Amino acid sequence: MxxxxxxxxxxxxxxxxxxxxxxxxxGPDAYCLDSWNGDQDxxxxxxxxxxxxxxxxxxxxxxxxxxxxxxxxxxxxxxxHDNEATDRGIDKTEAWDDLKYTDLEVEEDFLEKARAIVDGxxxxxxxxxxxxxxxxxxxxxxxxxxxxxxxxxxxxxxILQTVIDSHREExxxxxELDSIRPEYDFSEGERGPxxxxxxxxxxxxxxx
Length: 208
Prior knowledge:
By secondary structure, this protein is of the alpha+beta class.
């Protein structure tokens, strides 16, 4: 897990504000530190940690110039945060002005982005994901990469991108279904699970 020392080194030990954390999800000893460079088009970083144990619960990096916001949670406490956000009626994904947080799953991914943001450097906006493969799966991926004359990392990226694209298409179809649902005559065979209606939309699109 990211430590308080990691955060302090990233911000150059520059702290501009501190206060008790106002929510209950991280316990009574949760404290929040902010580091802002003083520029509205600059950056700020935030850490929420336990003053008694020094355990870090959450870190945030805000790139105001490029309108990007990244966040990393201690996985043991993220459900507590999300549940309290729901109870408070707060959008847990919103950073500011309808900008959504990108939640990162790899500690080093957050630190790399945060350091670059602080230093004003260009950084990779792609998101790293943890991936666990057994030996047989790894061997199969290596064979596939070899057949395509690409690296193993490139092979994994292609597979993940295919899955992401498929998920986005499915979500887009679900959104479209919600928007046109009143136009369907559900008494004439359109009734059924969302998945069946999505299939029908796909068929209609192919027929255009």
